[in-house]
Amino acid sequence: MKHITNEELAALRVPAEKYLCWVENALLHKAESVLPEKISMKMEEHVFYNVMPCILPYKGVAGVKIVNRYPERNPSIGGDLLLYRLADGELAAAFDAEYITTVRTGAVAAHAVKSFARKDFSFLALAGLGNVVSATFSMLAEIYREKKLTVGLLKYKDAHETFMQKYRFPNVEYKVYDAPESLFSAADVIVSGVTYREEDFAPLSCYNEGVLVVPVHTRGFMNCDAAFDRIFVDDYAHVKNFRYYDRFRWCRETAEYVKGVCEGRGSERERILCYNIGIALHDVYFASEFLKML
Question: How far apart are the first and last CA of the chain?
Answer without folding.
Answer: 13
